[in-house]
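Collaboration report, partner site 2.

Our partner group contributed sequences for two proteins of shared interest, and the home lab folded both. The records are reproduced in the order in which they were received, starting with the first partner submission.
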Amino acid sequence: MTIARKEAGYRPVTDRIHDFGEVEQTLNSKDRQEQASRCMDCGVPFCHWACPLGNKDPEWNDALYHGEWDTAYRILSKTNPFPEFTGRICPALCEKACVLYHTTGEAVTNRENECAIAERAFAEGYVTAEQPVHNGQRVAVIGAGPAGLAAACQLNRMGYRVTVFDKNEAAGGLLRYGIPNFKLNKSVIDRRIRLMEQEGIEFRYNEEITFNLQSSIFNNTYDAIVVATGTPTARDLNIPGRELQGVHLALELLAQQNRVLAGAEFSREERITAKDKDVLVIGGGDTGSDCIGTAHRQGCRSVTQIEIMPKPPVGHNDNTPWPNWPMILKTTSSHEEGCTRRWNINTLEFLGENGKLTGVRVQPIDWEPNPEGGRPRMVAAGKEEIIKADIVFLAMGFLKPEHPEYPDNVFVCGDALSGASLVVRAMASGLQTAKKVDEFLSNN
């Protein structure tokens, strides 16, 4: 309580918007250990309770504080298979549960500490490939996103021969094709995949598995199958003008830009770019924020982000008291780079000329209680207006997938099971599913 929270912060805006390098900086070792010393080893560690992985933050923070980086990594990796991912992109549920957060407003920098421990571990060779003894049974994992990777890693270490299938050309799922490089450099994913391959996991890319039970994957080649295909269908906005050139789903932009950075080439007609354009992002979440940051790096003229829901309060929200996640205004590094943000805006129509988008007709709205209960009702609250836009990105979330009835040896995990959620929750689901697979195979 006597040491203030100190974050590493971001690279200067004028520097970072010209490249796709990671925006977050790092503290030196002395400052990082001092930040770890702020952890009070509470009698009831709410951080541990709030973390879907059950990370033992007090234990590894204490090891870090004493300069025992190898011990810190060993403790951290017992519960978290990929701390280098969550240390960069997790919203840090643990920090909103931190006792210091509730008493002083300044939580322990758990997420940054986690990333620092992971990077030191890789740099100093604490991270080594484990060579488990295999038991002869085989498991297929369909989908190489965070849930599938976590399940594969755990199952391999339990002794199963694991093959991971993915429809894309490389592993990572939304880690690779949804999250921009300025938040998660893809070399971080590649490093982990190399390690998993060294541990004996087989990866097969560009193979999209059909879930017809006549498919070859269901022909007893594998003793169990884990379905970790995520939420592939984005929520669309089917209003007049949706067919106009310039209206895109957010992942069309984000996935293509990440592929370009990896060396892929696209024709001029295929290329989605915000260069010299007025950009409108529809949707107020992290995916929308990622579109904003990407648009700036592509050289956009302006960015506006609209959200149909009300503007959240700043700092504290009486409607979401502890232990709920605090629904408060979030300003990301991408917002700091320049963005007009508006709330309570409903989108009515995409406007265009000669088949190309020129603007979007919108209307301010309010929400009023529904006399029949349930979801509040949307009502008009102002005159319709037109927002000038040459390109629009729809970032309104994803639809929860539906699954057929599978045989007993097929297990679903991650977003494919729950619908779109956090990377850390997907990883936790992957670990839990690996345990279920092990129990099933051990009893059959």
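Second partner submission, folded after the first:
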Amino acid sequence: MATIVLSLSAKTDKVTSQHEVLIRFFHGRINQRAKTNVFVKTDYWDEETHRIKLDEVEAQLKESEGWRKMTPERKRRKQELEALRKDLQGKTDRLNVITSLVSSEFEKTDKKNIAQGWLKSLIDGFNFPKNSVKEQGFFEVLTKYINERDFSLQRKRHFQVVWRTLKRFELYKDTCLSFDTITDDTLRTFEAFFRDEHIICERDSYRKILEAVPESRQPQPRGKNATNNFMRHFRAFWYWAMDFGFTANNPFRKYKIVECLYGTPYYITIDERNTLYNFDFSDQPSLARQRDIFVFQCLIGCRVSDLWAMTKNNIVDGAIEQ
């Protein structure tokens, strides 16, 4: 009799703090494991039953139905619980479909001739049907990547900038970007375009392109570190596309992104921090807000990316935990 076991990967996504659900299939000497492309936080995974915890969320949601006074805070909490239940239910349903698919396909398969990568191939085929892969264009896949990946708001905005800049590049070069035609030379040309776009956009011929694919502000001079970080985002998308069968072409194999260079850091003292915290910014609310964010980061020792990724779930017993 075949056995299917679900478990969480030990690897944690640095942005979402989620773990991918892994599936392991046993039958006689057959022992295969594969990724499901379903991600969940450890808080909502039951190690004993090997399934997503829905009962706790549903119990909390049911409790919220009995709240007599619906304050703004309670309303937000209820909306969060409803969204969480919907998300977890969808992931549970998908895992059920995957396990049922594995069981049914195994019954149809010649048990003596099961390939080593049978389980992975089966699940990848379910998650990323070949026909849909072939039909989707470059920007359609990039949009899929941005919308379906569980990114923080800040990281999603970074990839939206990638999308818009690539689109302006395509229009400027009067070409059609595709996975098959992009080479390492294309990447170098694109790197130069990203770095020099603030100069290019001064040309009258570029005005229509900016109107067609606008930014919140006109492109500004971009340094080497900004350019390197931008190309890293592009490379992350490309490797994802390779992993999920959208392309076998790897232009980054011959294109190297150099390390960012940073100056010597200077640390403020506690007295200087307190002086900044007590400074009167009442006439400049935006600076006061930035000051508060900065001091908050000083007190808990988090980076900007950590701050953007925080939710109410990071507050545990009055303390902030990652």
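Feedback sent to the partner group on the second submission included the following. The radius of gyration is 24 Å. The chain is about 55% helix and 10% strand.
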